[in-house]
Amino acid sequence: MFDSQPVLDNERVHIRPLTQGDFDALYAVASDPLLWELHPASNRWQKDVFTGLFNAALDSGGALAVIDKAVNRIIGSSRFNVPDVKSSRAEIGWSYLARDYWGGAWNRETKRILMTHAFRFVDAVYFRIGEANMRSRRATEKLGTRLIEETEIIKMPDGTPVLHVFYEITKDEFTAQALLPSP
Fold it and tell me: How far apart are CA 8 and CA 110, in angstroms?
C-alpha cells in the first residue's frame, strides 16, 4: 500500500506530513503573490484562499511539509495523490517552494526524494500542471519527465475551467537518470 505521508530526508531537505500547526509557517511562504503569478489560481497568496488550499491539503491525506534542514524552516509543500490503490501510477503535485529556493538544486532534490519514495510502490510518477504555467512546466522537464498526450480540464475554485497537461517518468527512466551525474 502506498505511503502518502512518509518522513524523508536527504542532505538538504526534511520532508514530513503536513500538520495543522504548520499553517503560519507555510502561509509565510505562500503569501508571496509572485509565487502564484503563473499558476491558474493566482490568488492563492490571499489568506482566505490559501486557507482553503491548506485545509484541502490536510484533508487529502498526502500533504507534506518541505523543510530546509540547515535552518529548520518550512520552505514549501508538496503532495502525493494515488487516486486508485490498484494503479501503478502516483501523482506528485500541489508543490511550491519559497522564491529564495527557486532555481538551483532545491526543487530537483525535493522531487528526487519524493520520486525515489514513490517508486517503491508504483511504476510511474506523473505531474499535472496548468498548461500556461511555463515556470512549473520547465522545472518539471528538468526532472527528466516527458510531456504525454493526457490532458484534463479542471475547474479552479472560482469556476474557471483550465486545461492541465501531464508529465510522466517511469521507474526505469528514473533509475537510468539517477545513474547520471546531476547537471
Answer: 10
C-alpha cell of residue 5: 505521508
What's the rounded Cα separation, in Å, for the pair 181 and 176?
Answer: 11
- Please report, in tens digits, the pLDDT of each residue of the chain (183 residues total): 899 999 999 999 999 999 999 999 999 999 999 999 988 889 999 999 999 999 999 999 999 999 999 999 999 999 999 988 788 999 999 999 999 999 878 999 999 999 999 999 999 999 999 999 999 999 999 999 999 999 999 998 888 899 999 999 999 999 998 765 554
Determine the distance from the C-alpha atom of residue 101 to the mean position of all C-alpha atoms in its chain, rounded to a whole number: 14
Q: 5 in helix, strand or coil?
A: coil
| Spatial strand order in the sheet of 161-170 | 8-9, 13-17, 63-68, 73-81, 89-97, 124-130, 161-170, 146-155
Q: Strand, coil or helix: what is 88? A: coil
**Partner residues linked to 89 by β-bridges:** 124
**Interatomic CA distance for residues 31 and 29, integer angstroms:** 6
Q: Is the dihedral angle over the CA atoms 45, 58, 116, 28 positive or is it negative?
A: positive
